[in-house]
């Protein structure tokens, strides 16, 4: 097992943990009577990552009789019930509110607990009884509340066709301001070739008056730079994927690479939109589930692309690793990029680019260091036009403070905080940026996983590549979600795993591979799926596809074997060396051989060979900060 674990002391040596289970190959192919688990001690993951991984395998606490407690106020009881996963009570007699959830955009209702926008009936009535439907403004549905406060995703009945219906209906609206909308397609670069991208031309049918598509390659911060110019290569790969999907010529406005999470490339995207699209019409964010659309929407909301007053009025979209988070249309008004505003924005960008890291405030340094731990590419998203907030006014009532000695003090009822609203003049001619529901990826392994498993599979921080040198007759497991058998070849080859740092990689002999899977799938060794034999009874079996590759050199990978959305393995072999491989993924999920590979020189990002094993020590490249005059960060 090659898996990242916290190191016990500096430069600690490799620790071998012996377990029964048959022979295993380690390093040069030496066979031993016992299987060995190899733990990388020189790579120290983020403490939050390690804690999350350890928490998955803590023993279940035995139920104990709960001591008698005093009756709690209703609000505390409801919070305790929600934290325990108890669904709220529905009331089918109450009609829908007509008010959208400020987290996902779904219409708030209390009639159906399994439908989007559900609010428990008791909470719903308490919000409506005083102010009517206006009392629901700014409220979030139970699903968004659970995502934000507990990281839990409530199961909803929302078929893929419903996602497409909402998106198609939005794009088919008559053109506003005499011009069709610009489509901002958000593409997860880790998912190339994007399975939803070929559907975009169909969405742009004859009845859709779109003015073009600007493709945004997101999550570039998660991938290490395998060689100089890797961003240019990534951009070409995205452009090639667009051409294969039928997006070319005038239909494709541009291709941009960003990280909506760390801010890398976001200022450039805003400048590109303001320079070319200006404020000509509405903008729609499209993309597959979990591509980062909602994160991009939130980042644009606090940038110069949004009207200065909007962040105080519009709540940010719910962001969660669970696919299909956005259920309806959220929007914010786009600022009109006048010549004066463009000039002031450029002056701010020049001033910030001249700063060094030492000139940042302590809070800015703290946030920057946090982003450096999250990704390899970091950027700063600022605001040129900020609204001055009025000083708060203290509401003082002397009569409520005067009471006699035999009276109890009375507390005035808490006044409901008034929400700001846009004026008529602000929105009558506004152009809007819409966030649409994510289009569900079919044949995706994430559709088979529980919410806890999804959190382990989806990478949220910089990926540290793991490289192994394998000889024929060896098998590589990526958790229990993917398997690659090296069947035939004359020489050893290098296999570089690019996947979530929390997913284990296990190396064994081909003759022992089936036994390992049957014994450890659903358990700690392979980790995902989780739940033991009962979980594996309902999980699809692994099905295989034979792959033949011809090496092009020991420094450059010939292809990536993409194991659905679990990650991929880059294969590097000697020049002209033919390899016969057999790759496995769960039945009903995709397996793609990506040629050329996304990061062809990924095997160079490694440390020294670990003696007696097939593994190399891991190596994490430094982060790079754009638009900041810093030294020593690359």
Written description of the protein model:
The chain has 634 residues and is of the alpha/beta class. The chain has three domains: 90-156, no CATH class; 160-383 and 424-442, Rossmann fold (3-Layer(aba) Sandwich); 450-625, no CATH class. Helix content is 24%, strand content 18%. The chain contains 16 helices and 23 strands. The chain has helices spanning 47-55, 74-83, 121-131, 142-150, 160-171, 200-203, 230-244, 266-277, 293-301, 310-313, 339-353, 362-374, 424-427, 451-457, 510-520, 532-538; strands spanning 3-4, 15-19, 25-26, 30-31, 35-40, 182-188, 212-218, 252-257, 283-287, 330-333, 377-378, 432-435, 466-470, 474-478, 482-488, 493-498, 505-509, 542-550, 559-563, 568-572, 578-586, 591-594, 624-625. It has a six-stranded mixed sheet, sandwiched between helices. The model is unreliable at 1-47, 52-86, 399-405 and 407-414 (pLDDT under 50).
Query: What coarse outline follows from CA principal-axis ratios?
Result: globular
- Class per helix and strand makeup: alpha/beta
CATH architectural grouping of the largest domain: 3-Layer(aba) Sandwich
Helix content class: 10-25%
Q: Based on DSSP secondary structure assignment, what is the total number of beta strands?
A: 23
Would you tell me the overall average pLDDT? 78
CATH H-level homologous superfamily name of the largest domain: P-loop containing nucleotide triphosphate hydrolases
What value does the Rg take, in angstroms? 27 Å
Strand content: 15-25%
What number of structural domains do the residues give? Answer: 3
Spatially, the strands of the biggest sheet line up as 8-7-6-9-12-10
Q: Could you say what the CATH topology of the largest domain is called?
A: Rossmann fold
- Biggest sheet layout: 6 strands, mixed
Q: DSSP helix count?
A: 16
Assign the CATH class of the largest domain.
Alpha Beta
Region (Disordered): 1-98
Protein name: NOA1 protein
Domain NOA1/YqeH-like C-terminal: 495-595
GO molecular function, one term: GTP binding
């Amino acid at each position: 097992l090659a898996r990242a674990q916290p190191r016990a002391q500096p430069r600690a040596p490799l620790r071998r943990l012996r377990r029964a289970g048959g022979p295993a190959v380690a390093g040069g192919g030496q066979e031993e009577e016992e299987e060995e688990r190899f733990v990388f001690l020189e790579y120290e993951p983020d403490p939050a990552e390690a804690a999350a991984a350890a928490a998955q395998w803590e023993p279940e606490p035995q139920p104990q009789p709960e001591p008698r407690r005093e009756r709690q106020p209703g609000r505390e009881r409801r919070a305790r019930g929600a934290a325990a996963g108890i669904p709220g009570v529905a009331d089918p007699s109450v009609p829908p509110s007509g008010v959208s959830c400020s987290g996902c955009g779904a219409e708030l209702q209390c009639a159906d607990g399994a439908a989007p926008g559900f609010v428990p009936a008791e909470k719903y009535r308490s919000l409506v009884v005083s102010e009517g439907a206006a009392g629901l403004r700014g409220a979030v549905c139970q699903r968004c509340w659970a995502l934000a406060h507990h990281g839990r995703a409530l199961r909803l009945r929302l078929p893929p066709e419903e996602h497409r219906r909402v998106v198609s209906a939005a794009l088919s609206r008559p053109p506003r301001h005499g011009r069709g909308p610009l489509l901002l397609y958000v593409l997860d670069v880790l998912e190339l070739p994007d399975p939803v991208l070929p559907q975009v031309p169909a969405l742009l049918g004859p009845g859709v008056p779109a003015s073009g598509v600007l493709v945004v390659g997101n999550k570039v911060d998660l991938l290490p730079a395998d060689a100089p110019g890797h961003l240019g290569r990534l951009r070409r790969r995205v452009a090639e994927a667009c051409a294969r999907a039928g997006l070319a010529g005038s239909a494709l406005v541009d291709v941009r690479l960003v990280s909506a999470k760390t801010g890398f490339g976001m200022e450039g995207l805003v400048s590109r939109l303001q320079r070319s699209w200006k404020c000509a019409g509405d903008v729609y964010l499209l993309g597959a589930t979990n591509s980062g659309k909602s994160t991009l929407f939130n980042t644009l909301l606090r940038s110069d692309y949004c009207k200065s007053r909007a962040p105080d009025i519009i709540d940010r979209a719910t962001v969660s690793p669970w696919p299909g988070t956005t259920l309806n249309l959220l929007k914010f008004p786009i600022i009109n990029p006048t010549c004066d505003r463009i000039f002031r924005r450029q002056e701010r960008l020049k001033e910030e680019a001249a700063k060094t890291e030492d000139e940042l405030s302590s809070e800015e340094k703290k946030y920057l260091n946090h982003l450096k731990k999250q990704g390899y590419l970091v950027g700063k998203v600022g605001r040129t036009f900020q609204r001055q907030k009025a000083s708060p006014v203290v509401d003082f009532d002397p009569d409520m403070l005067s009471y006699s000695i035999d009276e109890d003090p009375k507390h005035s009822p808490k006044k409901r905080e008034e929400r700001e609203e846009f004026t008529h003049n602000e929105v009558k001619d506004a152009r809007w940026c819409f966030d649409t529901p994510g289009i569900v990826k079919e044949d995706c392994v994430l559709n088979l996983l529980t919410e806890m498993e999804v959190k382990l599979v989806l990478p949220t921080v910089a990926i540290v590549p793991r490289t192994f040198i394998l000889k024929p007759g060896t098998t590589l497991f990526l958790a229990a979600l993917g398997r690659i058998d090296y069947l035939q070849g004359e020489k050893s080859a290098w296999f570089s795993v690019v996947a979530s740092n929390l997913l284990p990689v296990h190396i064994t002999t081909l003759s022992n591979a089936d036994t390992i899977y049957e014994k450890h799938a659903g358990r700690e060794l392979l980790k995902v799926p989780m739940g033991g034999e009962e979980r594996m009874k309902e999980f699809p079996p692994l099905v295989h596809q034979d792959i033949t590759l011809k090496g092009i050199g020991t420094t450059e990978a010939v292809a990536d074997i993409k194991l659905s959305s679990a990650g991929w393995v880059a294969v590097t072999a000697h020049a002209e060396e033919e390899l016969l491989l057999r790759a496995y993924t769960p039945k009903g999920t995709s397996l793609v051989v990506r040629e050329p590979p996304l990061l062809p020189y990924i095997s160079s990002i490694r440390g020294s060979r670990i003696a007696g094993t097939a593994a190399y020590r891991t190596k994490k490249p430094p982060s790079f900060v754009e638009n900041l005059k810093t030294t020593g960060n690359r």
